[in-house]
């Protein structure tokens, strides 16, 4: 197989615009990254609260079936019959204790075992149903967050997460005991790297709601964890003050217990983003559809111990603040698309905010620096096998 090539700039703060736009890179990215030795969050187990609950999705083209069996155990399968690979389940989610392939009526239980198939006496000699369970990718759970990898070479999940694991745990209410509130789903006209190149520099400059609400940023830190450049934000919560354009100020009230770290963000390579801001717990499962389209499922959660008033409060904030049309993030969709358009020009994108030495990579950044994205870009370059230009 011919390898794609792209010469990377000498300086760490420069990224070739062609990385956002070249369609020939996409197939190699899928092979090396999405189907390679990486962990990908695909769901939280609270999306399947009851025995028999299931969810389906596709990750970089690979169909997956996530199921909770009668004993409450969560499993991940390839969504393909073990007979002739017919797609087994077409519903996005539901509740079943058995899955029947419509093609030849092979029947599987929620544990993935083949429990029935027509005319087995006419099969190959020695046929045994026990030899044909649904196939499974590697998967692990982290405080209920379900990760999969399609490679046997991927390191253990704890090693993959590194220091980001602690921030991610705190983001998921400290213990991962979540309750699903609902979803907002969207497709962006953007390459997956344009979607994931979001930074801390733009927020007070782009998003009009910060100005309209007189919302000032609180003190905080931004840091990267592991060689992949996972980026984490931990910041004090600064509640909007002064005259408000909102008729109901409760929409942006904070009912949590610790405003000193009231906002957290974790971005895991390659596409996962999670946010805890005010009382919103938001996990974003992003999936590359093609070289110019990225699909994102924004999932919102409460904590299992929340009372009815707190659940309603989280639901209202989740519906209005951080989603694809959220009042403090609605401009992002336009920017993702405009990055994709603008990158069809020659040259490099040059990062500035927070860059002290273009010849070095750092791991600690100010909250509003854009340089926190650079370790992730360096890992992408390395994973793709692109050589850096000589000095």
UniProtKB/TrEMBL annotation:
UniProt signal peptide: none
The keyword Iron appears for this protein: yes
Keyword Iron: yes
Domain Rieske: 39-148
Any Pfam family the entry gives: Ring_hydroxyl_A
Keyword terms, alphabetized: 2Fe-2S, Iron, Iron-sulfur, Metal-binding, Oxidoreductase
GO molecular function: 2 iron, 2 sulfur cluster binding; iron ion binding; oxidoreductase activity
Highest rank taxon of the organism: Bacteria
Protein family (similarity comment): Belongs to the bacterial ring-hydroxylating dioxygenase alpha subunit family.
Protein name per its UniProtKB record: Biphenyl 2,3-dioxygenase
The organism of origin for this protein: Croceicoccus pelagius
């Amino acid at each position: 197989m011919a390898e794609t090539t792209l010469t990377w700039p000498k300086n760490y703060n420069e990224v070739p615009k062609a990385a956002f736009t070249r369609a020939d890179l996409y197939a190699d990215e899928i092979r090396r990254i999405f189907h390679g030795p990486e962990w990908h969050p695909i769901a939280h187990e609270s999306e399947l609260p009851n025995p028999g609950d299931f969810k389906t999705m596709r990750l970089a083209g690979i169909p997956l079936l996530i199921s909770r069996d009668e004993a409450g155990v969560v499993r991940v399968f390839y969504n393909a019959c073990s007979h002739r690979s017919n797609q087994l389940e077409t519903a996005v989610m539901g509740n079943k204790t058995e899955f029947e392939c419509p093609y030849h009526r092979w029947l599987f239980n929620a544990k993935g075992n083949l429990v029935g198939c027509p005319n087995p006496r006419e099969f190959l000699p020695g046929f045994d149903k026990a030899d044909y369970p649904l196939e499974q990718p590697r998967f692990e759970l982290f405080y209920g967050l379900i990760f999969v990898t399609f490679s046997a070479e991927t390191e253990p999940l704890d090693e993959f997460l590194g220091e980001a694991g602690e921030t991610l745990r705190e983001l998921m209410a400290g213990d991962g005991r979540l309750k699903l509130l609902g979803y907002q789903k969207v497709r962006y006209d953007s390459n997956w790297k344009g979607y994931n190149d979001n930074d801390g520099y733009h927020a007070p400059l782009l998003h009009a709601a910060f100005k309209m609400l007189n919302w000032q940023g609180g003190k905080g830190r931004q840091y990267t964890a592991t060689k992949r450049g996972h980026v984490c934000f931990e910041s004090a919560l600064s509640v909007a003050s002064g005259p408000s354009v909102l008729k109901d100020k409760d929409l942006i009230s904070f009912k949590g217990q610790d405003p000193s770290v009231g906002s957290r963000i974790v971005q895991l390579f390659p596409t996962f983003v999670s946010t805890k801001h005010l009382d919103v717990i938001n996990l974003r499962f992003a999936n590359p559809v093609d070289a110019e389209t990225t699909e994102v499922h924004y999932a919102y959660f409460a904590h299992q111990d929340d009372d009815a008033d707190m659940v309603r409060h989280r639901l209202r904030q989740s519906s209005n603040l951080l989603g694809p049309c959220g009042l403090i993030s609605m401009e992002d969709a336009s920017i993702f698309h405009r990055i994709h358009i603008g990158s069809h020009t020659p040259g490099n994108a040059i990062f500035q905010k927070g860059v002290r030495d273009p010849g070095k990579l750092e791991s600690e950044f100010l909250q509003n620096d854009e340089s926190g994205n650079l370790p992730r870009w360096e890992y992408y370059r390395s994973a793709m096998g692109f050589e850096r230009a000589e000095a």
